Amino acid sequence: MTPPQKPLSRVVEACPPSGIRKFFDLAQTMKGVITLGVGEPDFPTPWGVRESAIHALTRGATTYTGNSGLLELRELICADLAARHGITYRPADECLVTSGVSEGLDLALRALINPGDEVIVPEPSYVAYQPCVAFAGGVAVPVAMDPAEGYRLDAARIAAAVTPRTKAVLFGSPSNPTGAAQSAEDLTALVALAEREDFWLVSDEIYDRLTYTGTHTSTAAVPGAWDRTVLLNGFSKSYAMTGWRVGYVCAPEPLAALMHRIHQYTMLCAPHVSQVAAIEALRSAEPDVTEMVADYDRRRRLFVKGLDELGLTCPEPGGAFYAFPSIRSSGLSSQDFAEQLLEEQKVAVVPGDVFGPSGEGHVRCSYATALPLLEEALERIGTFLSSRT
Ligand code: PLP
């Protein structure tokens, strides 16, 4: 028996597999590896949240919910956004509960893009952004941001890439992989550009609670931005809930209705029990978040200082749980650095070039790892570097 000979999707075939997975899979086959490779909290989901899900299951929360998600959850999400960022969305029709930010990202791009539309992606960028633009029929236009300027969103660089086909700029703040948290001033300049050139802003704010050097500015809260912003957020990172698959997307009508239409035919709804857990997270887990953030911050300080002492400098990451140091002093490419460090010292990091060509010369290290392991990782990286001088 032979499968059909007709070509499979060329768009998907042209998209390389995730470079993060490759290292993660390799590290899992080895013993004694300290992994700084995965972008996942090392804390368990707060107990109260887990308990609420257990109770929900005993009560039979095993069915579909309405397509948009439980109304109580949408009301809490909108109240939370209003309280923390001063932005207003109507729970009934401007807020959709999704299976993680991943689904929200896909919905936003599919609802926005016509074939050939361009989406500017400031780089280094989260690995899913550019493939998702391509899957939606668009053309991703990467634009490198400057490490010397802390990877701030530079509206002038973005402006240089705008064409009549520019439909949106897609970015995350705080950023995966650089940890850069964008300032109100830079976002304001970007919003002014979006108004002038008439494009959307797709703003991934999944790390909005994990900020250390200032408060988070939500893109939608910038004057003039609300009508042209798609806000993506979720529970995976802030509440240590990656496996629950629950997030949300907020946007004005009629875009929100189009995203809802795709979602009702593809995902139907986010997992019911996870939605109940998300309600509990918003109701009671703030103290847990505060504790986790304080812990990440301690690790961030220690780790960034340690890297610096080894000559692996990086702009201070203001949010998320990533450091993105330059490894140029080692003389190695980012792929070689990551491969040899894993092989010789059993420390897994992600080569910077998987986040776009401008990530070359850097590696991404996640400090969502216990302090003693971070200390040990720094020692091993030190041994690795000194074996090369
Ligand atoms: N957006 C960013 C910037 C991420 O780093 C990740 C996960 O690493 C996601 C989205 C995916 O989030 P979710 O688990 O909510 O699908």
From TrEMBL:
Residues 32-381 form the Aminotransferase class I/classII large domain. One of its GO terms (molecular function) is transaminase activity. It comes from the Bacteria. Its cofactor is pyridoxal 5'-phosphate. The keyword Transmembrane does not apply. Its EC number is 2.6.1.-. Keywords: Aminotransferase, Pyridoxal phosphate, Transferase. Belongs to the class-I pyridoxal-phosphate-dependent aminotransferase family. This is Aminotransferase. It comes from Actinomycetospora rhizophila.
